[in-house]
Amino acid sequence: MIERRDVFQAIADPTRRMIIQKLSRGPLNLAGIGEDFGISRQAIAKHIKVLNECGMISVTQKGREQFCEAHLGKLDEVLSWVAESRKVWNQRFDKLEKFLDDTSSE
């Protein structure tokens, strides 16, 4: 079975969020990405694979090195989801507030 990946999986892990943040400053090779993390190169490579499958980054081969580049436009999906969720919850809280006001004035 093929696992479907999306932007929410990409940002669910704190290490992947830090990798995205690091790549937001510009493309880096795997060694450059991994230098600030206390994890193995293989662990970094697994995170890179997930980010690539989610469409958050692209990986390009340049000579012997693989360079990663962020695609931050994918975060628009998160912004849209948050905005829609905020609207739904605000409506629910408004209804709750009205209900509480109505019941307290009785």
UniProtKB/TrEMBL annotation:
It comes from the Bacteria. Residues 1-90 form the HTH arsR-type domain. Pfam families: HTH_5. Gene3D superfamilies: Winged helix-like DNA-binding domain superfamily/Winged helix DNA-binding domain. GO terms for molecular function: DNA-binding transcription factor activity. NCBIfam families: HTH_metalloreg. This is ArsR family transcriptional regulator.
